[in-house]
Specification:
The structure is a single chain. This protein has a 4-stranded antiparallel sheet with strand order 1-2-3-4. It has 1 helix and 4 strands, in the order H-E-E-E-E. By secondary structure, the protein is α+β, with helices and mostly antiparallel strands.
Length: about 110
């Protein structure tokens, strides 16, 4: 009787160790996925920020990392080309040529 009890405890312990290993693996995958997603988001935001800074002089852009579309009088819609897509609307002041960000959103497919 005691032998059966000890064997059941050993099996229960080994099952617990297996579950803990799976849980630790899933946690590592989760953390790495968050890091990669954050890095992609930062790249998209930097591209949009670069396009926003040079909106008043579009002809000087050597490399365009964004889609830039007019959205009205002195209004522009800037969307990043990298995933996740970040989209902003900016208003360009006619006198100073400075762009002011009106809103921000993440575009989902």
């Amino acid at each position: 009787m005691i032998l059966a009890w000890v064997i059941s405890l050993l099996l229960l312990g080994s099952a617990l160790v297996g579950q803990l290993e799976r849980l630790a693996t899933l946690r590592i995958v989760e953390v790495n996925s968050i890091k990669v997603a954050h890095a992609h988001f930062v790249v998209s935001e930097k591209a949009v920020l670069q396009c926003e800074g040079s909106i008043s002089n579009l002809s000087a852009l050597v490399e365009n990392h964004c889609f830039i579309e007019p959205a009205g009088k002195n209004l522009w819609r800037i969307t990043s080309k990298e995933k996740p897509f970040v989209q902003i609307h900016v208003r360009v002041d006619e006198k100073s040529g400075l762009a002011k960000r009106l809103n921000w959103r993440q575009v989902f497919e």
